[in-house]
Amino acid sequence: MYYKGIMVCDDESCKHTTRSPNFRLLGERERGTVCPNYPNCNGTLLRKYTEADLYKQLSYFCHILDTQYSLEKMDVGMKIQVEKAMAKIRPAVESAAAITRSIRDRCAYGWLQLTDIAI
Q1: Domain named Zinc finger DNA-directed DNA polymerase family B alpha: which ranges (predicted)?
Q2: Does the pLDDT of residue 111 top 80, yes or no?
Q3: Contact criterion met (CB below 8 Å) for 55 and 110
Q4: Is 15 helix (H, G, I), strand (E, B) or coil?
Q5: Is the dihedral of CA 109, 33, 15, 13 positive or negative?
């Protein structure tokens, strides 16, 4: 979804959807944010699936693929049964978790710049 680059007009009456931004300049607006239905609509194009959404999805995948964390949260009686059942698939799940973690950790959205916070 993120890499499709779908943009939606924020005007409730328009809701125009496009993949190609309009590079018309109007006033103080940024290039590529003017709705293609401009004379009929004063809306702004916004990403349908933002960088924040992508980061949240990667974080969610990291959470659900973390087998060690899920095993720590289980009762002792149930933990042994689940460990036996998970033994076959654990290498594949750990591999998927490692790949997801590496992609998420490379994402600049998760980094905090202290210079932006300082007054």
Answers
A1: 1-117
A2: no
A3: yes
A4: coil
A5: positive
